[in-house]
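seq/struct pair 1
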Amino acid sequence: MQHAPGLAAALLLLMVPALPAAAAPPESAAAGERVWLEIRAPSGGRVQRAPIALTEVRGVTGAGVPSDHDVAIVIDLSSSTRLPAGVDVDADGQVGRSSARVTASNWSYGSPEELCDDPGDTIAAAELAAARRLLAMLDPERTRVALVAFGDRGHLEAALDVPRPGLLAALDVLDGKHGWYGGTSFAGALETAVRSFGPTPPGGGRERRRSALFLSDGYPTMPLPEPLPVDAALAAARSAADQRIRVFGFALGPEAVRGRSTLDQLTQLTGGALTALERPGDVLFHLPTVELSDVVEVQMENATTGATGRAVRLFADGTFDGFVPLQRGENRIRVRAQGAKGAAASDELVVRYEPLEGTTREVELETESLRRLLRDRTLEVELQDEMRRRRGEARRELKVTTEPQPKE
């Protein structure tokens, strides 16, 4: 599995004030939730010889039955996605901006250069960059990905059976199509995503959880006339729900946040969740940390010494990794995962550590490489935790604003 570094962008994000941490779910919420966990490396009973007393632990976790994932990334490329994302997406040191002549009432008449003076910093560019980051964090052995682009219609850009290089090539092609698809049809996009999954898989064997990640900077405007855009979108969501496909919505920018009612309904109908982002470019950080596995945290420790794990990362599809400190001799490694509703699962293995004696240039290089890896992964973990806190806070605010208020 590959992981995108994205450290410059992560540092940019960390300059934004943090939101309060989400409260832990009540114990009653865990009723009926089943969490599973598999440690895949290192092998139990293994004797480890290394210059640094650390072992990397890798595995996979999830809620429900053990499963793999099928994911459709649905990207809005309607005309308005030529507008600026509000962040330096292409990391060239400049944040793209619209011409002073462009206003909320006349933007649809502007040229691409007037809408954003840096084509690498448009909303479309942020969506595509976020998709690349997510791809780099999904295990290709467990997670298949389809790619859908939409505007006034949906178009399947890459099917589920396309390998990672093909998906990246498809994203490269879409880099030349910012705003290429005209209006906004949620129904066409979601119908295309549903078709990309194929028939509902039969029971038996390892389950495949199916999710559509739906990115848009607006609200449905097609097919005409009103209220067909919304009605058709909700009908497509019901079809997705019937086929056990969850929709995770990302409302990008003020226009989408103001008109998020339809996206909120799409996610509720399918058992997904909505993330509303006032600044479209923040999708760079939120999409890669979407919780497809319904597990919110993984912890590691050396139960023999009490030492806690370091740089423990949990990815969207439930894949995890981290480092656990060792002592000479026997070490009992314990990993624990917590589900979104509060249930937990754990697994253990024993590793025996015998340190390498002496110092050579090769050992020094290996040691320095590991130190750099730990530093980079620690930053990634801080970024993941920040995003989960922000998303939890935003969802609580969304729930408050959309729930019926008591009459006086």
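seq/struct pair 2
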Amino acid sequence: MASGNNLIDGLIGNGPAMQEVYRITRKAAPSNATVLLTGETGTGKELIARALHELSPRASGPFVRVNCGALSESLLESELFGHIKGAFTSAHESRTGRFEAAHGGTVFLDEINSVSYQLQVKLLRVLQEHEFERVGDTKTIQVDCRVIAATNVDLIDEIDAGRFRDDLYYRLNVIPIDLPPLRERSEDVPSLVDFFVERYSTETQTEARQFSPGAMQLLAQYRWPGNVRELQNYVERAMVLANSATIDVDDLPEHVRGIPVVRTARVNVDSIETLCADLVGRTVSEAGPDSNELYSAAVSRVEREIILQVLRQCQGVQTRTAARLGINRNTLHKKIEEHNLHDESR
């Protein structure tokens, strides 16, 4: 899977930005130092986390990934540290947590910025003392695992906003590795395209197609807000829909070609809420100064209905729903909790 002069198998890109990532990854891998991966969504943070594990003395041990943004606070605590039977209503039997499961290996905490302020205290203890208790238990468990964390937001901003502990940040940020967005390493686009073409052809047992020079130039010039993941999707789409062995400019999406796309405006919960607040405000203003509860309830109801409709349109896929609503996935998750839309999001 490696390409050309890549320093790490399985990772694509030979430009200066990625070469620096490879250099730090190789130097950090043999140690037990905690690593903090930063970068936009879709830049390959999990691939670097796996490389750090596979190049380390812990490679024969487990690699355990936890998406901290996908679980509520109570579920995440149980997921990380485990629980004993009877610890809470649905705890019908004891369960081992992810830290125990990662003993002798590596635990990868993705979207670490989503962890609640209270739960961050327990994470800090694991990092410093290598010990914790299962939920509902008093027995202390010792664990030997390396921690790699990742975030797609600036944790300093989270600290300033009072949502992230500065002591946990400094404990995580022993070795920082920043993954550059694809728009800052356009020289790697051809290698990535070739890789995805070959992989898709192998998976579907179809003949590999070639991208024309014009199509490749457009891909290199595009800004890629979704980074490598977005590029992968467009390569697969072109492979499926192209009418000839050569994928040309016309086979690419219109916005990649620079053609303005007329479409229904993306639903933005904050904008909708502001608009509805104005409309609802006019409606309830006649109720007098005690209308605050009615006002808030009406706005909340409208917001819930919009999120519900978009969740159904996206078949409960939170990533697609958040993109269509114009909010990040963490905000969507909190709103699903707030409006009790768990069944619709499954």
